[in-house]
C-alpha cells in the first residue's frame, strides 16, 4: 500500500529529524539574543549523556517507578545542558570572551564528556553490566498512544509518535509564538538586533542573553536525550554531526522555529533517505555507500538557502544583526 | 550619546563597580595571569580525576608527563602532532586577523586529504615518484584553496555569513570523504581503504635519517617562520591587518578590500590543503573521515589564544597536544583503562580557563568611588 | 506672562574637564510655546538639553519643572517628569515595525493591535503620516523621525525636546514637521527645538534663546527678531586670533570642481551642482552648517564617494597634464601621480588604524613603495620619530598604538603623515575639532606652511573666526549647494552666517515670518 509506505517514511523522518529540531529550536532562541553558540553539539552531547547515565543508574534501582524513570533522565538532561549554557554565558557575557572560540571549546568539551562517560561509566561505577544500555527506560520514552493504530491513516499520521516528538513540536511552536507575539519575544529580538538600542529602551540586555541562551541550551539538550533514547544508549560520535545539522537547520528555517519543524522533517528524511529506498520498491538501485552523498544534501541545501537569503537581502531572513558580537556598554 | 544615556541610567541602579578596558598591560603580568589560569585548570582537572577515579593527583601528573614525553617515540609523536595542529592554526590565522571567521579548516584539510589520496590512487603507477609528490602537493593545496575560496567569494560580493558557510562546507567535505572511502575501499562493504602502497611505500613522505617524524616537524617549523614574516613584514600581511582593523581605512588608502579578502582566504585554504597532504602522505597513508582529528576547530582556539602570533602558537599548540597525549595516558593506564576522550575533557577545561582569563588581562574592575566627572570626560 | 513655565533652568553650569560646555545658563519654556535654542556647532545646545533628559548631570544650577525643583539623574527620571527628547541619532531597531519600536521596553500587557491603534490615533491627532506595521529599514529618514516623536508621545511626554530635527529632512518634510509641531504647541505641549538655522527659528518659534560658546546670550521674542539680529547674537563680535596669513604666491588653478552632483544612500541629494576652484599656494575654507555636504564633497574628491555627474579636474603642476579624477578609486588617483592628501573627519575610523602603532600608521600611505613584497619599516620609523619630535606628539614611543594617544596627538600624527607625502592638494576636515589651543595653532601653522610651499589647501572648518583669519577665500555651502564665495580678508562673520543658511531658506515654506 502506497499510503502505508508514505506514513512509514514520514514517521521515520519525524523521528530522525527530532533531535535536530530540538537543537535547532534551542539554537534559534540563543541566536535571537545575538549569541552564535557553536557549542550546541557539545551541549546536545552533555544533555544526552546526562540523561543516559541517570537512566542507566535508576534502571538498576529496586522498586523503580515508571514515572521517575521518565522524569529523572529528563531532569538530568535539562540540568546538564543548563550547566553548559551557563558556562557559555559566563564566558561570553560576563567575561566577554569571543563567542566562536568559546562555542568551539564547549563542543570539544561536551562531546568529550559524552564519549568519555558513554564508554567509561561502567568502569567508573564498578557495575557488573557489560554495556550502557537503557532499553527499559527508552521503551517507556518510546511508548505511543495505544489507540493510534486504530485510527487508520489519520491516526498514524498524527498520533503514532512518542511523547517527546510532541514535546519537541510544542516547544518549537511555543518558541515561535513567544518570538512573534509576546513582549519578551519583542525584547529578545531587539537585543539580538541592536543591543545598544534595547539597552537604551531599558531592557536588561545581559539578563536576556543569559536566559535565552540557557533556555536554548536546555532545549537543545533534550535533542541529545532524544537521540540516545532512539539508540537505547550512548553512541559515540554521532551527536556532533547532529549538532552541526541543527545549526544548519537554523539557517535553513531562517531563524523561525515553526519553519524548523518542517525543516527538521525534511532533514530527517534526507538523513535516512538512502536506507528507506529499498522500502519504496522503486526500481532505482543505489549501491551501498551512496548514503554518504545523501547525507551531504542537507548541508548543500543549507548553503544554497544561505546564499539566496544573503543575495535577496530581505532583512527578515537575515541572521540577527548583532549575531556573534558581544555587547559591552562601556565600549561606546 | 545614546549609550551614555543608558550608561548613566544603569549606574544609578548598579553602583557597586564597573568594568574598564585596560589601556595596556605589562607582558609578564599578562603571562602570569595565563599561567595562573592553566594552573587553576590543572587543579580542577586533578579534583575531577580524583573524584572519578580516586587517583592521586600527583600520580596523575606523573602519568601525564609519561604519556607525553615518556620515551622517544612518544616525544616524537608529541612533536609531530604539535606540528600538525600548529600548521592548521597557521592556516586559519591570516583569515582571522582579517576578521574572516573561517571555521571550515576541517573541510579544507579534508579536501587536501581527498586530493592527495586521489593522486596516490590514480598516479602511483603513472608518474615517477618525485613528480608524484609535486602533483600531490599541488592538488592538495588547490583542493584546500578551492574549498576555502567558495565561501570567501560569497562573503566578498554578497556578504554571506562566512562562519555559517564554512561550517556547512565541513560536513560536505566529510561526507564526500566518506563516500570516496567507500568507492576506493578494497572490499566494498567495510569502507576501509587501508594503507595505500603498503609494500612499496610509494608516495609516503620520506624519512630523514631514519626518523619519519622529522620532515613534518621541520616543514612546519619553516612555515611558522614564514607565516610570522608574512604577517608582520610583508605588504600582504599589512594589508590584511588593515582590512581586519577597519574596512573604512582600507578603502581610504586604496586597498581593494574584496581582493584582499579572497586572496587571504585562498592562502588559508591552501595551507589547510598542505596539512591534508601531510596527514595522508606523512602520517596515516590512508584516508578516513577521522584523519583530520578535530584539528580544524582546535586550531582556531590555538590561534586565538596566541593572539594570532605564530610563535606564541607553538606554545599554545604544544600545550594542547601535550595535555591531550598526557590525558590519554592517564585514562588508559593499566589500572583504569578508561576512554581516550578523557583528554577532550581535560583540554576543554584548560581552554575554557584560558579563554576566561583573557578578561583579567584586558579589563580591570573598578569599584565605584570615582566621581562622575571622570566618566563624563571619558564619554 | 506670569504663568509657571514647564521647564525653567537656573544658572546651569556643566564642565567636562577643562572644557566649559555650559556656563551659568538660565532659560525657560512654557506650555503652549515653541522655544528655539539657537547657536553654532559647539555652542553647548545639546549638552544643555541632555541635562534635562537625564544624560548628563549639571555641576551646579537648578532645574524646575512646573515650578518645582527636580533632580534628573537618568533618562527614566526625565521621562517620569514628562520630558521626551528626540536625539539626532535615532534609537530604533531596523527589523522591527514602527509599532514594535514604539512599545519596546515598556511593561504590561503586550497587544500590538491596541498599540497600533493608539499610534494611529496619536498620528491623526497631530497630522503624522505613519504606517504602524511598516518596518524601520523600509522607512525614509523622516519616517524614522516620526516614529521617534510618536514614541515619546506614546509614552505620555508633554515636554518635547528635538535636537536638530531638520538636519536630515528635505524642505518639504521640514514644513510638514513644523506644521505638526505647531499643532502640538496649540495642544498645550511645551516644545524645545535645537537648531542653528535662522529661518527655522523665525518661521517656527515663539521665543528664541541664543547660546554662544557655552554662554547664554539672550532670549528674544521671535516677532522682534530679524535674521541680522539673530546672526549677530549667535556669532558674536569677531575675536582676533592672530593667526599668521601670508599673501598667496602665484596661485594656479590646481583642482577645478564642476557641477558636482552626489546622492547619499537614502537617495537624498547631498551635493547639488557644486562648482569651485582650489588654487595652489592658497587656503580655501569651506564653511557651512554641519552635514551640508562637506564630507561627501571631500570624499568624492578623494575617490571614496560615487558621483552622479560633474567633473573633478586636476592640473598637474609638473607635467601640466589635466586629469579627471571623477569616479577613480584612491588607488587609481595615486597611480596617476596625483599627490592628494586627505585628513578625514573620522580620524581613528578612517584616517588611522587605532590598534596599530605610529610607525605602522605612517606606512598606510607609503607601504606600497617599491617592488619588494616586504615592508620597509625604516623610512616610516624615521618619519614617525621626526613627526613625534617636530610636532611634539606626546607618546611613550613610536611603537605605541595610536588609540592610546589623546585626541590632539592623534591628529598631529594624522596631519603629519598626510603632509609628509609632499602633497599638491591637502584636504582637511575639521582638523582642530576637539583640540586644545596649542595643538590647534600648531595645525594652523602646518597648513600655512603647506600653503607657502605651493600646496592647494582645502580647509573645512566650523569656527568662523578661524576660517576668517586662516583662509584666503571661503566657499560657503548650504544643503549641498554653493551659496557663496567670499574673500576671507574682507568678509564678515554675519555675511558668512547668512550665506550658510541661505540655500535652504530659499526652499523653505513661503512666508517664513508670518506665524
Task: Give a written overview of the molecule.
The complex is a heterotrimer of chains A (332), B (379) and C (515). Chain A is mostly helical and 332 residues long. In chain A, 74% of the residues lie in helices and 0% in strands. The longest helix of chain A is centred in the first third of the chain and has 31 residues, at 2-32. Chain A is globular and about 55 Å long. The mean pLDDT of chain A is 87. Chain B has 379 residues and is an all-alpha fold. The longest helix of chain B has 30 residues, at 129-158. Chain B starts with a helix and ends with a helix. Chain C contains 18 helices and 20 strands. In chain C, helix 12 (358-366) packs across helix 13 and helix 12 runs parallel beside helix 14 (407-420). The longest helix of chain C is centred in the middle third of the chain and has 16 residues, at 171-186. Chain C is globular, with a radius of gyration of 25 Å. Mean pLDDT of chain C is 86; it is low at 504-515. Chains in contact: A-B, A-C, B-C.
Strand and helix map with partners:
The complex is a heterotrimer of chains A (332), B (379) and C (515).
Chain A: H1 2-32, H2 40-59, H3 66-94, H4 99-125, H5 135-142, H6 152-159, H7 163-181, H8 183-193, H9 195-200, H10 205-230, H11 239-252, H12 257-280, H13 291-312
Chain B: H1 2-13, E1 17-21, H2 27-53, H3 57-69, H4 72-97, H5 105-123, H6 129-158, H7 162-183, H8 214-233, H9 235-245, H10 247-252, H11 257-284, H12 295-305, H13 310-331, H14 342-362, E2 363-367, H15 372-378
Antiparallel strand pairs in B: 1-2
Helix pairs in contact in B: 2-3, 2-14, 3-13, 4-8, 4-9, 4-11, 4-12, 4-13, 5-6, 5-7, 5-11, 5-12, 6-7, 6-11, 8-9, 9-11, 12-13, 13-14
Chain C: E1 7-16, E2 19-29, E3 33-38, H1 45-52, E4 60-65, E5 68-70, H2 75-80, E6 83-86, H3 98-103, H4 112-126, H5 141-154, E7 159-163, H6 171-186, E8 190-195, H7 198-204, E9 207-212, E10 215-221, H8 227-235, E11 253-263, E12 269-279, E13 282-287, H9 294-302, E14 309-315, E15 322-324, H10 330-335, E16 340-343, H11 347-351, H12 358-366, H13 378-390, H14 407-420, E17 425-429, H15 437-452, E18 456-460, H16 464-470, E19 473-478, E20 481-487, H17 493-500, H18 502-507
Parallel strand pairs in C: 3-8, 3-9, 6-7, 7-8, 13-18, 13-19, 16-17, 17-18
Antiparallel strand pairs in C: 1-2, 1-4, 4-5, 9-10, 11-12, 11-14, 14-15, 19-20
Amino acid at each position: 500500500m502506497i499510503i502505508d509506505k508514505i506514513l512509514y517514511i514520514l514517521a521515520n523522518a519525524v523521528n530522525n529529524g527530532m533531535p535536530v529540531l530540538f537543537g535547532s529550536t534551542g539554537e534559534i532562541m540563543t541566536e535571537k539574543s545575538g549569541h552564535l553558540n557553536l557549542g550546541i553539539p557539545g551541549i546536545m552531547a552533555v544533555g544526552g549523556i546526562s540523561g543516559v547515565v541517570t537512566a542507566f543508574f535508576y534502571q538498576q534501582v529496586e522498586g523503580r517507578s515508571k514515572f521517575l524513570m521518565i522524569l529523572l533522565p529528563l531532569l538530568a538532561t535539562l540540568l546538564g545542558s543548563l550547566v553548559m549554557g551557563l558556562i557559555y554565558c559566563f564566558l561570553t557575557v560576563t567575561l566577554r570572551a569571543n563567542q566562536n572560540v568559546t562555542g568551539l571549546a564547549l563542543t570539544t568539551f561536551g562531546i568529550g564528556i559524552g564519549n568519555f562517560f558513554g564508554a567509561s561509566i561502567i568502569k567508573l561505577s564498578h557495575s557488573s553490566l557489560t554495556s550502557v544500555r537503557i532499553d527499559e527506560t527508552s521503551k517507556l520514552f518510546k511508548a505511543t498512544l495505544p489507540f493510534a493504530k486504530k485510527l487508520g491513516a489519520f491516526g498514524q499520521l498524527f498520533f503514532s509518535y512518542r511523547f517527546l516528538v510532541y514535546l519537541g513540536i510544542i516547544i518549537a511552536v511555543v518558541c515561535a509564538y513567544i518570538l512573534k507575539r509576546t513582549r519578551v519575544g519583542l525584547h529578545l529580538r531587539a537585543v539580538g538586533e541592536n543591543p545598544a538600542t534595547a539597552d537604551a529602551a531599558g531592557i536588561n540586555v545581559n539578563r536576556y542573553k543569559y536566559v535565552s541562551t540557557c533556555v536554548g541550551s536546555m532545549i537543545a539538550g533534550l535533542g541529545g536525550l532524544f537521540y540516545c533514547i532512539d539508540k537505547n544508549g550512548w553512541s559515540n560520535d554521532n551527536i556532533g554531526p547532529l549538532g552541526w545539522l541543527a545549526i544548519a537547520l537554523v539557517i535553513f528555517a531562517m531563524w523561525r522555529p515553526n519553519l524548523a519543524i518542517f525543516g527538521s522533517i525534511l532533514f530527517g528524511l534526507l538523513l535516512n533517505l538512502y536506507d528507506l529506498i529499498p522500502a519504496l520498491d522503486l526500481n532505482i538501485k543505489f549501491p551501498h555507500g551512496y548514503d554518504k552523498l545523501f547525507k551531504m544534501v542537507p548541508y548543500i541545501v543549507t548553503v544554497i538557502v544561505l546564499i539566496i537569503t544573503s543575495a535577496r537581502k530581505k532583512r527578515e531572513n537575515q541572521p540577527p544583526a548583532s549575531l556573534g558580537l558581544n555587547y559591552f556598554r562601556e565600549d561606546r | 550619546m545614546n549609550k551614555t544615556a543608558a550608561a548613566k541610567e544603569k549606574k544609578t541602579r548598579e553602583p557597586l563597580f564597573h568594568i574598564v578596558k585596560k589601556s595596556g598591560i605589562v607582558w609578564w603580568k599578562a603571562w602570569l595571569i595565563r599561567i595562573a589560569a592553566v594552573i587553576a585548570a590543572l587543579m580542577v582537572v586533578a579534583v575531577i580525576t580524583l573524584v572519578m577515579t580516586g587517583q592521586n593527583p600527583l600520580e596523575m601528573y606523573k602519568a601525564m608527563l609519561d604519556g607525553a614525553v615518556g620515551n622517544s617515540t612518544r616525544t616524537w609523536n608529541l612533536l609531530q602532532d604539535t606540528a600538525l595542529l600548529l600548521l592548521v592554526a597557521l592556516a586559519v590565522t591570516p583569515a582571522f586577523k582579517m576578521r574572516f571567521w573561517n571555521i571550515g579548516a576541517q573541510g579544507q584539510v579534508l579536501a587536501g586529504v581527498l586530493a592527495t589520496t586521489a593522486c596516490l590512487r590514480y598516479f602511483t603507477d603513472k608518474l615517477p615518484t618525485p613528480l608524484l609528490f609535486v602533483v600531490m602537493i599541488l592538488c592538495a593545496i588547490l583542493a584546500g584553496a578551492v574549498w576555502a575560496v567558495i565561501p570567501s567569494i560569497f562573503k566578498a560580493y554578497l556578504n554571506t555569513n562566512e562562519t555559517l558557510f564554512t561550517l556547512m562546507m565541513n560536513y560536505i567535505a566529510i561526507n564526500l570523504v566518506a563516500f570516496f572511502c567507500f568507492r576506493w575501499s578494497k572490499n566494498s562493504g567495510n569502507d576501509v581503504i587501508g594503507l595505500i602502497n603498503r609494500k612499496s611505500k610509494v608516495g609516503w613522505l620520506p624519512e630523514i635519517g631514519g626518523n619519519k617524524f622529522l620532515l613534518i616537524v621541520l616543514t612546519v617549523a619553516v612555515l611558522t617562520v614564514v607565516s610570522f614574516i608574512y604577517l608582520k613584514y610583508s605588504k600582504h600581511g599589512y594589508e590584511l591587518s588593515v582590512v581586519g582593523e577597519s574596512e573604512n581605512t582600507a578603502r581610504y588608502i586604496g586597498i581593494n578590500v574584496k581582493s584582499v579578502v579572497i586572496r587571504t582566504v585562498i592562502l588559508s585554504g591552501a595551507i589547510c590543503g598542505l596539512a591534508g597532504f601531510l596527514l595522508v602522505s606523512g602520517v596515516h597513508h590512508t584516508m578516513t573521515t577521522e584523519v583530520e582529528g578535530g584539528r580544524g576547530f582546535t586550531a582556531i582556539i590555538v590561534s586565538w589564544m596566541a593572539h594570532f602570533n605564530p610563535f606564541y602558537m607553538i606554545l599554545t599548540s604544544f600545550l594542547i597536544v601535550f595535555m591531550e597525549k598526557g590525558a590519554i595516558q592517564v585514562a588508559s593506564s593499566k589500572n583504569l583503562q578508561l576512554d581516550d576522550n578523557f583528554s577532550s575533557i581535560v583540554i576543554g577545561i584548560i581552554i575554557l580557563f584560558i579563554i576566561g582569563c583573557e578578561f583579567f588581562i584586558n579589563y580591570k574592575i573598578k569599584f565605584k568611588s570615582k566621581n562622575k566627572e571622570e566618566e563624563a570626560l571619558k564619554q | 506672562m506670569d504663568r509657571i513655565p514647564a521647564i525653567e533652568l537656573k544658572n546651569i553650569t556643566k564642565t567636562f574637564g577643562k572644557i566649559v560646555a555650559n556656563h551659568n545658563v538660565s532659560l525657560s519654556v512654557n506650555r503652549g510655546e515653541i522655544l528655539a535654542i539657537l547657536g553654532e556647532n559647539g555652542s553647548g545646545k545639546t549638552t544643555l538639553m541632555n541635562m534635562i533628559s537625564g544624560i548628563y548631570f549639571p555641576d551646579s544650577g537648578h532645574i524646575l519643572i512646573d515650578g518645582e525643583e527636580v533632580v534628573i539623574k537618568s533618562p527614566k527620571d526625565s521621562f517620569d517628569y514628562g520630558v521626551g527628547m528626540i536625539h539626532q541619532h535615532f534609537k530604533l531597531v531596523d527589523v522591527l515595525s514602527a509599532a514594535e519600536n514604539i512599545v519596546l521596553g515598556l511593561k504590561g500587557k503586550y497587544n500590538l493591535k491596541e498599540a497600533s491603534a493608539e499610534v494611529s490615533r496619536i498620528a491623526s491627532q497631530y497630522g503624522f503620516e505613519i504606517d504602524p506595521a511598516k518596518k524601520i529599514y523600509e522607512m525614509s529618514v523622516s519616517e524614522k523621525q516620526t516614529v521617534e516623536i510618536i514614541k515619546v508621545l506614546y509614552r505620555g511626554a508633554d515636554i518635547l525636546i528635538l535636537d536638530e530635527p531638520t538636519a536630515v529632512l528635505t524642505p518639504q518634510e521640514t514644513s510638514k514637521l513644523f506644521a505638526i509641531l505647531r499643532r502640538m504647541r496649540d495642544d498645550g505641549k511645551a516644545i524645545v527645538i535645537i537648531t542653528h538655522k535662522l529661518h527655522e527659528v523665525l518661521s517656527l518659534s515663539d521665543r528664541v534663546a541664543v547660546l554662544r560658546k557655552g554662554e547664554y546670550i539672550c532670549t528674544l521674542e521671535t516677532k522682534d527678531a530679524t535674521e541680522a539680529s539673530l546672526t549677530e547674537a549667535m556669532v558674536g563680535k569677531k575675536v582676533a586670533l592672530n593667526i599668521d596669513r601670508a599673501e598667496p604666491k602665484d596661485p594656479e588653478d590646481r583642482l577645478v570642481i564642476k557641477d558636482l552632483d552626489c546622492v547619499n544612500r537614502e537617495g537624498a541629494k547631498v551635493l547639488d551642482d557644486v562648482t569651485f576652484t582650489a588654487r595652489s599656494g592658497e587656503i580655501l575654507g569651506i564653511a557651512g552648517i554641519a552635514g551640508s555636504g562637506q564630507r561627501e564633497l571631500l570624499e568624492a574628491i578623494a575617490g571614496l564617494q560615487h558621483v552622479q555627474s560633474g567633473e573633478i579636474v586636476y592640473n598637474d603642476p609638473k607635467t601640466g597634464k589635466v586629469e579627471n579624477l571623477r569616479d577613480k578609486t584612491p588607488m587609481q588617483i595615486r597611480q596617476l601621480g596625483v599627490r592628494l592628501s586627505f585628513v578625514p573627519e573620522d580620524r581613528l575610523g578612517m584616517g588611522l588604524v587605532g590598534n596599530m602603532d605610529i610607525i605602522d600608521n605612517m606606512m598606510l600611505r607609503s607601504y606600497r613603495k617599491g617592488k619588494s613584497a616586504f615592508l620597509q619599516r625604516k623610512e616610516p620609523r624615521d618619519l614617525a620619530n621626526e613627526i613625534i619630535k617636530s610636532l611634539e606628539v606626546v607618546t611613550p614611543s613610536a611603537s605605541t598604538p595610536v588609540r592610546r594617544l589623546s585626541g590632539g596627538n592623534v591628529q598631529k600624527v594624522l596631519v603629519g603623515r598626510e603632509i609628509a607625502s609632499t602633497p599638491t592638494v591637502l584636504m582637511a576636515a575639521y582638523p582642530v575639532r576637539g583640540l586644545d589651543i596649542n595643538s590647534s595653532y600648531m595645525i594652523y601653522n602646518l597648513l600655512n606652511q603647506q600653503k607657502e610651499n605651493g600646496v592647494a589647501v582645502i580647509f573645512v572648518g566650523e569656527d568662523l573666526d578661524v576660517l576668517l583669519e586662516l583662509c584666503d577665500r571661503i566657499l560657503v555651502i548650504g544643503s549641498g549647494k554653493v551659496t557663496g564665495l567670499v574673500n576671507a580678508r574682507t568678509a564678515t562673520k554675519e555675511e558668512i552666517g547668512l550665506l550658510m543658511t541661505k540655500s535652504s531658506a530659499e526652499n523653505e515654506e513661503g512666508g517664513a515670518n508670518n506665524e
